[in-house]
Amino acid sequence: MEIPISGFMYHSEDSEPMHSHQLYITQWDGMPVQGHSHELRGTTSFDVGHNHKYAGTTEPSPSGVQHTHRYFTFTSVDDRHRHQIRGVTGPAIRLPNGGHYHEFSGFTTVDGVTPHRHSYGGRTSL
Q: Which InterPro entries does the UniProt record give (predicted)?
């Protein structure tokens, strides 16, 4: 039995010989598969005399099933530098009245005249 599937892939920035691509299915057996994204924003930890703000949108993931989202963004420029933020959210946390959010946390890249990194974390939008 064959089931027609449609979708798209995100290109990996990984330059390793063995890498993978994320496949997002947009149609399964002729029926659309709903996808969604979340916004994330916050302020990093205060280190080396400053902090940074960040905001971004997660990559889309399918709706109606347990899932996570990948994210990537840059911080604001403070103290003449910025950092990258990237990671994968935790699983969906369902709300009693419908909808869900994800928790996320991690560390920025190491940058700055005095090389350092910041921690960050929070919850995505609903």
A: YmaF
